[in-house]
Amino acid sequence: MKIMTVDDSAITRKIIRSAVEVLDYDVVEAMDGREALELLEREYEEIALILLDWNMPGMDGMEMLSNIKGDDRLKHIPVMMVTSETGGENIIRAIQAGAAHYLVKPFTIEELAKRILECLGRGY
Amino acid sequence: MYRVGVDVMNINISSEEFELMQRYIEEECGISIGNDKAYLIESRLSGMLRELGCSSYGELYNHIYNSEDKRVTQRVIDAITTNETLWFRDKTPWAILEEELLPLYVEQLKSREKDRIRIWSAGCSTGQEPYSIAMTINSFLEERGLKSELLYKFEIIGTDISPTVLDMAKNGRYDNISIMRGLPVECRDRYFKNEGRIWTLDRTIMDMVELKQFNLQNSFMLLGKFDIIFCRYVMIYFSPEFKVKMAEKLHRALNTEGVLFVGSSEMFSGHRELFDTEEYRGGVYYRKKEETL
Amino acid sequence: MSGKGLLDMDMDRFTGLLNGAFTDVIRTMTGLDAEEASDCFTVEEDSITGAMAVFGSADMMVTLSTGIDAAKLIVAYMTGVIAADLTLSDIHDGMAELVNMFVGRLKADLVREGLDITITSPFSISGNDVELVFKDRTYCICRYSITDDVGVILRIVNI
Q1: pTM
Q2: Which site among A11, A83, A85 would you substitute to test the C interface, given the most C Cβ atoms closer than 10 Å to its Cβ?
Q3: pLDDT digit string (tens) for B30-58?
Q4: Among B151, B196, B191, which Cα is nearest to B172's?
């Protein structure tokens, strides 16, 4: 199975790739919402989790989340927001829109891996 | 653009709600959370917010506060503690272990004054600390031709409250980022096998360590007694009252002459009746004082 | 704009928050310790600056400057990719992401202090002899050493 990272920062995608590969999943990278949706069209059956940035050029993370949760083929895929946007109201908005978890940057690689496992039902 | 049908004003975390949560975490978990960590707590508890179907932090805090389920407390502790770990973190504990303690333990094992040495890494996260201990012991014994005779007499236990990080530790797989943090190249090349960006720890080292889920709130009795306890960067989260309790519990969990390491930048106060402070090459460790009953 | 202005905040309190946010971000993302530098070093040629604008109670530009080699080392620790394998584009992205994380973290602190803050997208600038001139608008400058060879200058400028 694969885990998708959607982030306009190549560095964040590299960090996420490291954590994901240790957990023995393959990685699919997209640099914005539009590219992610195109990839999901082709690969949605293999995607176990989507890690989604909030602030991206073009379609932002919340719009992307809304698209995923509004699509019958995709809505079962857990989504974790990975963002430097803090604030309880943002978290509540994301959770109510269907996000499984909300990880604030900066994070340690161990914490990222732990949250990924939790989203996959392999944690608490 | 996505819009949720909720009045944003009603879902903002209020300071009263945060205080309620702070009080709960301090009373139930012994952990002090400063106001500057509010943003972190909100994010860390987001998974519980979803699972419990809460539409505000007030609702989540009330749920947690009123819950009598021990698992809820445990999950809160797991969520709010930071999994930050390095190989061979701080220089001095490793020099003390190798130059002061291991030579003594080897003598005690050879003369049968001791039949085994037990070491506990409390709050071991993804395993870097107990595996660093195991690598140090393995190298020490191997270089002196004592490995086959004495290795099995060293028992290393790593505990953490989070079963998720323990699973990662048990896999012994690390990425380039983790490997870069504190691990000397010679140690990496000696004890890890590299495939792509993944480094897998040698089975011998993994087999030296027993990993267990454990809540430091509980009694340490069932863990038995130890010759060395590494409890580093764990008590920094604790309330002053819980730190005192921890010092007493750690004292009771040590064998005679047992040694305690705390983090090099940690203040470990109020221990003078329980521990003697020892210094070695600029580093400090604590030796159990004899019971004065 | 509602909320308190940045200038209402005590400067020591503000620099305390800056230091806390910066050391936290560096420690979390690189495993290294950033300490306030005792000397007033400057960043010479071949420098790189990550920058981000902040609006609201205070309109500010936050910049984080260091030498290219120092930035390479920081980004290497962030990503686990050895410095020699990092491209200039990686370094730019890394510095921009670092300033993004720092400002995001600082925003959480400033909002808690009652300030109203909106952040923009980060960007980075590099090159030989690039001089950023802020006239007399500099609000504060902090210098940090991360290792013996790596120094970073954090500057907050009113815009």
Answers
A1: 0.91
A2: A11
A3: 888 887 788 888 899 999 989 888 988 88
A4: B191
